[in-house]
C-alpha cells in the first residue's frame, strides 16, 4: 500500500495513503451537512464545518492510536514495527517479523481493539456530560470507535479478530502455519458472507452502503488469500538454502576502477545489476549497484572510483551458503536493490539478488499445485 510519509515516532514511520484525504473530507462533509444539523439544529454552517473538520481529524487520529496500540505492544514483544499506514479501510501496522509465541500474537492483536474501546467509551462518556455540538461530535466519535472495535474483532484474517483466532488455534495445536491457514480460510468465508450481505443490501436498501460492504468483503478476501499464500510459500521457502538460490561466483570489480572505466569494461559483457568490489589484495570491500552508479553526474564519472561509491561490506548482509532463504528474506526483504553476499570460509562464493528471490518464489508457487487449488477455489473451513 503506497502512502506519503508524514512523520516518525519511536522508529515507526507514519504514512498516509491518498484515499485518506478524500475519506476525511467526506466524513467532515457528512457530519457538517447531515449529522450535526439533524441532531443539533440552528447553528451556523461555519460552526458545523469547523466541528465537522475537527471531529473527522480526531477520528483519523483514533485510527492511528489503534495502530499505535498494536505497535507499542509489538515493540514490547520484541517484534519490529516498520510503518503505520492509514488508507481507505482504516490503518495497517506493518510488522517486520512474526510474533514468536501465540501469547505475543494475541497481545499484539488485542491491543488495537482495546485502544478503540477506550476511545469509544471515553467519547460516549464525555459526550454524555456535554451539551450542543461537542456532545454530538463526541458521541459520534465514541460510537464510531466502538463500531470500529466490533468490526475489527470479526474473526476474519487479517482483521484483529482473525489474528486472535489464529493465536488461539496456534496455542491449541502448537502449529503456527496450520493456524494461519485456518484463520485465512475463515477470513475467505467471512469475506464472502460480507460480499453477499453487500449484494442484498444493494438490492433492498441503499446502493452506496451495499457497495461499501462488498468492497470490505472483497478486501478481506484478497488479504486472507495473500496471508494463505504467504503461509504456504513461506513453509516451502523455510527448507531452501542460500546455496540453492544464489548466483554462484559473481563477477567482481576492482575498487580502483573509475566509473567510466567500469562502464567501458562492462558495457557489452555486463550481465549483472550489482558487483562486489575488491581491493588490491582481492578482498571484498563492498558492493556497487548500477542504480548507485546512475545517480553519479556524468562529469564525475571519470573521477570517482567504484571503491568510493560502493556500499561498504559492513553495511551489506552476508551469509553462509547453508543459511536458509527465509533468513535472507527477513534480513534483506525481497524488494528494493538490496542484496546479500555469500561467503564460505572467508571467500566470496555467491550473491543473492532480488531477482533470484523473485524467481525462486515464482517457482515455489508453481510447485504447490494443491495449495494453488485451495487458493483458486472458494474453500470453506471444515
Ligand atoms: Zn487493529
General description of the model:
Strands 1-2-3-4 form a four-stranded mixed sheet. α9 links the parallel β6 and β7. The chain folds into two domains: 234 residues, no CATH class; 124 residues, CBS-domain, CATH 3.10.580. The two termini are 32 Å apart. It is built from 14 helices and twelve strands. 35% of the residues are buried. The C terminus is likely disordered. It has 382 residues and is of the alpha/beta class. The radius of gyration is 26 Å and the shape is elongated. The structure holds zinc ion (ZN). The site of zinc ion has 5 residues, from α2.
SSE blueprint and pairings:
Blueprint: E1 4-9, E2 12-16, H1 18-39, H2 45-76, E3 81-87, E4 90-95, H3 102-129, H4 132-152, H5 160-173, H6 176-204, H7 207-237, H8 242-245, E5 247-248, E6 253-254, H9 259-266, E7 274-278, E8 284-289, H10 290-294, H11 306-309, E9 311-312, E10 317-319, H12 325-332, E11 340-344, E12 347-352, H13 354-366, H14 369-376
Parallel strand pairs: 2-3, 6-7, 10-11
Antiparallel strand pairs: 1-2, 3-4, 5-12, 7-8, 8-9, 11-12
Amino acid at each position: 500500500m503506497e502512502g506519503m510519509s508524514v512523520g516518525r515516532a519511536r522508529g515507526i514511520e507514519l504514512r498516509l495513503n491518498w484515499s485518506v484525504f478524500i475519506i476525511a473530507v467526506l466524513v467532515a462533509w457528512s457530519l457538517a451537512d447531515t449529522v450535526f444539523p439533524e441532531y443539533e439544529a440552528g447553528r451556523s454552517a461555519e460552526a458545523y464545518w469547523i466541528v465537522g473538520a475537527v471531529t473527522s481529524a480526531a477520528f483519523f487520529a483514533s485510527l492511528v492510536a489503534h495502530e499505535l496500540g498494536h505497535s507499542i505492544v509489538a515493540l514490547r514483544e520484541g517484534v519490529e514495527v516498520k510503518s503505520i499506514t492509514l488508507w481507505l479501510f482504516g490503518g495497517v501496522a506493518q510488522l517486520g517479523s512474526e510474533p514468536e509465541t501465540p501469547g505475543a500474537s494475541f497481545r499484539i492483536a488485542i491491543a488495537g481493539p482495546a485502544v478503540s474501546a477506550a476511545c469509544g467509551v471515553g467519547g460516549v462518556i464525555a459526550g454524555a456530560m456535554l451539551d450542543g455540538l461537542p456532545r454530538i461530535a463526541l458521541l459520534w466519535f465514541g460510537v464510531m470507535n466502538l463500531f470500529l472495535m466490533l468490526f475489527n474483532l470479526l474473526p476474519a484474517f487479517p482483521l484483529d479478530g482473525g489474528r486472535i483466532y489464529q493465536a488461539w488455534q496456534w496455542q491449541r495445536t502448537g502449529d503456527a502455519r496450520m493456524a494461519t491457514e485456518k484463520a485465512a480460510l475463515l477470513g475467505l468465508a467471512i469475506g464472502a458472507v460480507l460480499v453477499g450481505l453487500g449484494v442484498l443490501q444493494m438490492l433492498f436498501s441503499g446502493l452506496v452502503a451495499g457497495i461499501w460492504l462488498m468492497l470490505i468483503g472483497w478486501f478481506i478476501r484478497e488479504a486472507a488469500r495473500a496471508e494463505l499464500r504467504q503461509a504456504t510459500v513461506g513453509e516451502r521457502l523455510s527448507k531452501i538454502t542460500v546455496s540453492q538460490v544464489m548466483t554462484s561466483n559473481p563477477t567482481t570489480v576492482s575498487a580502483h576502477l573509475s566509473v567510466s572505466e567500469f562502464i567501458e569494461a562492462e558495457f557489452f559483457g555486463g550481465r549483472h545489476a550489482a558487483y562486489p568490489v575488491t581491493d588490491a589484495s582481492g578482498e571484498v570491500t563492498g558492493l556497487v549497484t548500477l542504480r548507485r552508479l546512475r545517480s553519479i553526474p556524468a562529469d564525475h564519472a571519470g573521477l570517482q572510483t567504484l571503491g568510493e561509491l560502493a556500499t561498504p561490506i559492513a553495511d551489506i548482509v552476508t551469509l553462509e551458503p547453508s543459511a536458509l532463504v527465509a533468513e535472507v528474506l527477513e534480513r534483506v526483504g525481497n524488494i528494493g536493490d538490496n542484496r546479500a553476499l555469500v561467503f564460505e570460509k572467508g571467500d566470496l562464493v555467491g550473491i543473492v539478488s532480488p531477482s533470484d528471490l523473485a524467481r525462486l518464489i515464482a517457482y515455489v508457487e508453481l510447485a504447490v499445485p494443491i495449495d494453488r487449488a485451495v487458493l483458486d477455489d472458494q474453500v470453506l473451513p471444515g
